[in-house]
Structure prediction request, 49 residues.
Amino acid sequence: MMYKCTDEILYGLGKMYAGGGEFTENIDKMGGKGTAEFVYQAIKIYCGK
Prediction:
């Protein structure tokens, strides 16, 4: 079953991506340095924050 990913949920995920620590390190390891922050900024714009 799928859940509805609201803008608030998506924004929260974006904050986690760029929040530092192991989560951010793993994203940056796969996409290159700064990927987590880039994705967070894109999500922030998409969500109108």
Summary: Helices lie at 7-18, 21-31, 35-46.
